[in-house]
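User: For my dataset I need records formatted as: sequence, then structure tokens, nothing else. Please produce one.
Assistant:
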Amino acid sequence: MQHHARSVLAVIVIFALLFTIIPALAAPTGTDIAGHWAEAQIRELMERGVVSGLPDGTFRPELTVTRAEFVTMVNKSLGLSPLADTGRFSDVNSGDWFAGQVEAAAEAGYVTGNPDGTFSPYRPITREQAAAMLIRAFGFARLVSETEQNAALASFADAGQVSSWAKADMATAVHLGLISGYTNTTLAPKPAALTTSNWQEWEAARTTEQREAVLEKLGSSGLITRGQTAAILVRALSKKPVIQEATLFDQAGTYGPEDGIETISGDVIVTADGVVLQNLIITGDLTIAESVGDGTVVLDNVIVKGETYVKGGGTDSVIFRSCTLEGTITVEKEDGKIRIVVEGSTSVPKVVLQSGAILITQEDGSVEEVILPEELDEDTEVVLSGSFGKVEIASQGASVSIGAGSSIDTLVLGENATGTKVDLDKEANVGTLTVNAPAEITGQGRIGTAEINNPDVDMKAEPEKVVYGEDAKKEEPKKGSGGGGGGGTTIPVSAISVEPTELILSAGEPGVTTGSIIATVSPSNATNKTV
């Protein structure tokens, strides 16, 4: 977001208060917005009837916005109508032009006023106040996890200056891209020199010069301008339809009919621990949000037509029981500590692991394909337990454990999967293993066919059949580790042929006392050819 120095910041807020948000008295143009960084956003809000120009035809995008003006703009953006003043704030009178707007904002629940029962309508709104009102008014609260909130503020040197009551909302606004830093390293949540006496001095000022003097003390940072407000509101409005189309489950409990099936049109977002969804058809995407934390979410007999995103949930499991997921499950838990169980008759076409995870199939649950993509962090730990069709590892340095009793039809280590470690439990089974990169395969589980396309493979198990690609034949594979050894592939003998198959020696026959038998070992590059 751009910011410009303002030598005259107050010219004049009273003037703006009287005419800024009153379309009947204000001209619909803004002759001074051409070329301004927020011109497009200002014009969009003008077309929506949210803001308008001043009587002199200007808009004054760098003019500071008051609290009364801000709630009026938010209300108009959301289509909230003014309400009759109830006298809930001692400094808002029924005859004030903004009284109905302030009442509507309070009734909507996104403003509560000051502890002393005032609203301070004439005070310039601070950036943290604007963020808090915006997030609460548009319903964006609780969509961002605490971890993401902390990350959103981590790069700002003055993050500690955000008031405790506004921290979550400010962080959410930054994370969602509604508000950017005042600079690359500062948030400027409120004026650095802000004091109660400053505000009292502001409200007591009656001339332009007096208010300019107060703003000079406060400094230009920490407040919000008309142009900035327009940009923020347009961003919020662009996200609002997405939120409106989603069904939000933000309280623990069981949702869905006991019998029969119910359809939810659009997307579903689960933001709370302890949510159970049952007997539902979700026509859009399903998101288990970061805010679930390390909690548990259960889906029982749920059909998801769209994609499924798992960003929250802990080691006590996200459970899919007798579900049909027509799209991909994408797992992205920041700390990688998540357990996903696919059970009952659940069928999943594809799971993409963007983080570490424990993935379990049991009973008749099935996963056709599991992918560890290239962008997965090194040293990511993945545990697979159960039955899987194809597992493809494209990432570097991942550690994949295949548990007892597990079965994988096809396990592929891609060309970029350098440093991958696969541990195969002795009771696990892999139909076909294809290795295209240097890797380490430990454990004594069964491998039906091993297709080796890279010579730098350390494999402890003995496949029933080994097939070598051209790349692997170019270099004699290293012998298996042991003694003074070093890594490499240990190639077992898979077959021995003997010629001739029959040899008869006749005792006493002149000149015939010995015979020769030739044993041929397959494959030709077996590590130990001794017979």
